[in-house]
Specification:
- The structure holds two protein chains of two kinds.
- Helix content of chain A is 89%, strand content 0%.
- By secondary structure, chain A is mostly helical.
- Chain A has one domain.
- The longest helix of chain A has 46 residues.
- The N terminus of chain A is likely disordered.
- By secondary structure, chain B is α+β, with helices and mostly antiparallel strands.
- Among the domains of chain B are: 155 residues, no CATH class; 198 residues, no CATH class.
- Chain B is 44% helix and 18% strand.
- Chain B is rod-shaped and about 205 Å long.
- The chains are: A mainly alpha, B alpha+beta.
- At the A-B interface, helix 3, helix 4 and helix 5 of A face helix 4, helix 10 and strand 11 of B.
- Chain A: This is Mediator of RNA polymerase II transcription subunit 22a.
- Chain A: One of its GO terms (biological process) is regulation of transcription by RNA polymerase II.
- Chain A: InterPro entries: Med22 (IPR009332).
- Chain A: Pfam families: Med22.
Amino acid sequence: MNKGTGVGIGPTAAAAAAAAQKQKTMMHRVDTDIASIVDNFTQLVNVARVNDPPVRNSQETFMMEMRAARMVQAADSLLKLVSELKQTAIFSGFASLNDHVEHRTNEFNQQAEKTDRMLARIGDEAAASLKEFESHYYSSAQRTAETE
Amino acid sequence: MDGNLEISLDKLPVKRLDAIEENGAERYPPDSSYDEKGVSLIRRIDFAWAVEDDEERERKKKQKKSSKDASAAWQWQSMVENLQLAHQELSVIIDLINTVEANDAVTVAGMTRPKPLPNEVLSDLAVSAATKLQCYRQLGKYFKQSAKAFKEQIAWEARFYGALIRLQQNWKVKRQRVAASASSNEGFTIDLFDNSLYDLAAMCRPSSLSTIRVEHDSAGMLAINLTPNSCRSLHFGFLGVHSADIPKNTSKIRTHGSVEQRIRESEKESISDDDYVKETHTLLREVHQSIFNDQVFEMLNREAFNQSVGVNVTGIRENYLQLSIGQGNTLFISLMPSNKGDNQDSADTQNLESAIVPSHSFDTENKWVFPNRTSCEIYLQQIFHENAFVKEKDKPNLSGTQASGQSGKVEPSLLGHRIFSSIVLTELENVVCRVPYLHLMTHPTWHSRTSSWTVFMKVPQSILHAESQSPKSDFQNMKEAIKSQFRTKVVLNDDRINVEGEGAPNVVGLFKSSENICSVNKYECDLADLPVIILLQVASQVIYWLHEEALTVGIKTNRDFLCLTFELEQGETVSLVAHVNPGDIKGGISWWLVMEDGFAEDWKLQMDMHDGASDYRKFLGHLTLDVLYSTSMDLVSMCGGGRNH
């Protein structure tokens, strides 16, 4: 898990200890759930023998339903664990997030500089065009005719 | 049992007289004990019907077997009948046992299960196996359903968290630990309020849109639901200006909060997750812009009520602010819902225009005096951005020219300058248009509160060519080449007009021995005097030029501010006098020819000064430079002596 490798320069000792404890808890949950699934499935397979007393078969039927429900519950617990890990990745992935933010900041700064240069160039071109237009206009026959 | 119900009637448990003896004694039958009663009841049970039913059943079976092929019998009918019969027998036996046990007449010593037959054992085993198989199948279905549900949940979470992670790259995602999470809310919010760079003392109150909840839609994808009309855009305008340019703002107006509606309309399933995330990014960006616009408006509200120079609040309503700046110019700034901007902007603006009479009349010409609305909106946003963000970030590097820390005061100064600049340009154009030998050139300063123009007076090329053909020294040619253009520079700083021109005589020139120095004048003036100042400057430049031309041909002339005097023979003087009139439609500068001698002084005092037909004063009209040059050359030719070839 990245949590173990994420302990670096930034977090304090308390945060590192909390992260380690959380990691340990999650591993325990994973082991518990996996063990539950395996154990229940084993029991399911073991009661496949058909017994003579029908009542025992009924009893085993109820037990199989219970073990199946436990398996599904353990699987659901594992899925919730995965969700928690995803959320932790979202809210604790500071390294990648900071890198991304820095990258985007550089991009935007470059874009801002490029835009400024473009605006300056546009301004220069507009000024040159304006100068040319004014020169042409005031030298044109139309303007001369207007003044006449 | 059979359909017919046999009923046996018991005698009433009433003591009936059995016999009466002769002595009158009544003889009743002896009372039976409780056990005897039970035994009598047991003896009354008739199992004959069961035996008869068995016989009939066997008979029917034989009949059915013979007709089995012909009829379409239900395959489980026999089993059902067997089960029913077994049930009946069991019921009877159980009732019997219960009755016997209740009466204590007979006690069940024991019951032994009959030894099952082999086929019964196998059938029981088959039933058990089938039951267990059925159970496993049900478990299999249950596992499949669970697996399908888990797959859907995994896919849902993959979409949701994938989109959330992508959103987190650009936005601040927060998690609220809610105890009971609803099905559509995992407790995630997106915080759009930036409280790290603001001046806390003047911090705006957080907008209601600052925190956006992340929810799920029906497909499991994250969704952001906004209330309609929650996003607002900034609108800027000048009162009294025709609202023809309102549609130019349509680029700012966008539909908002309707991302989901757009997606529903365009078949949601067909849009990929990438497109959906992009749409969400766009929506968040719109909200962010709306928050920014709210903050800009709030800043304007704060600054408008400060004692800023040239800013007066003339009207205020919800999300609407009206200011008066400069010389009676009224503008309004409002926050309007983005999706209603197209429809309501023009209506609201027209209503406002009709409600408030502007301070001075606006015609179509004055419409262009006002700066572009979009540029003003952009500049307002830029001011706020620089003061709120850049100022905090780069305090030592803050440029003093742009945002000098007084954002509210910059804005009206800029607007006032922009409006005044347009007016000044109009005046300059009016002047230049009337004088054919004047050219106007605009110098973009790229400064928001400084504007600059130059009025050129160019000597016609025909005159320059004519001069170049005359035998003159190279030095003189170079000198005249320089003086082919005269410039008058007009600089507008905020609302101060500075005019800088060359060619007019001034105090400095009086002390200079050489007349070849073209002195430069600098002075300030107001708008009303600007046309006159320009025309005076130009007229003086023309006089200077004619003076130089006369000197070139060796004739010494006297140059006054607007007068060039030629000394003729016999002491007579002829003067070319410029008359400046900004209101003259035909041209701003007209010329007079004034002749003076010793005897004409008395005449001049008695004559009407405005009589152009005087012998000593002749109105020449609005002359071009060519005509002036030829006139001055004619006068030069009339001058005698001192002419250098």
